[in-house]
Amino acid sequence: MSYECSLHGAVPAASVAPLIERICGLSGLAAPLVASAKLPQIAEVEMVFNERGGRGGNAPLRIRSDWCAAESSVKTLQDLKWSLLFIGQPQPPKPGQLATIRAVYEAPVMQGSVFDYLDLLDYELTLEFMRKGYRFHYGAISITISCIHKFQSKHDLSSITPLDPSGTWLVELCTERTATENIPFASEKLAQFARNLRGLVDLSIVDINKNGTR
């Protein structure tokens, strides 16, 4: 079983530029690249599928793909290269726990239609959104700064609008997938990096007991 350690926060639009500048300094991204605004962008589409009819006996499944990484020949979402994911609920925080911990399984779809496969499993689409923003890397840690956009029409990229009109950006620090015995080390590395961002963003653990996040 593999696990993902993460920390989460949010910032107003005015704080995005100084936060990116701090992250670029920590991650060693070249100053000319930052000055020219050629930053590592993402337009990550994610869809959540639940058992048809709301039976809820099995966990939701997700598919995910980055539109920015798509080949020029790709014209529709259905033609993207997708990964199929199961993301477990966050473990309830324990005293001294430094990060959110979830079980995660991910498998790239090598051939065929993932939509047809999920339909055969009797799953239906219940949520579709795009994560637009930037993603940086610092060793085994990924740092994502993004806005969530919702689809007004199914699979229609021209219909996306910001979920939060106020312009709030989400910040996520996330480790590479790791085994159980490596969770303390990975969590400590995450917490160390988060301390370098203090004053710009407050990053915290997801507490399922408070907000019921899945």
TrEMBL record:
Origin: domain of life: Eukaryota
GO cellular component assignments: core mediator complex; mediator complex
Subcellular location field: Nucleus
Matches recorded under InterPro entries: Mediator_Med18 (IPR019095)
Record's keyword terms, sorted: Activator, Nucleus, Transcription, Transcription regulation
GO molecular function: transcription coregulator activity
Keyword Transcription: yes
Known partners and oligomeric status: Component of the Mediator complex.
Family: Belongs to the Mediator complex subunit 18 family.
Name of the protein: Mediator of RNA polymerase II transcription subunit 18
Organism (species): Rhizoclosmatium globosum
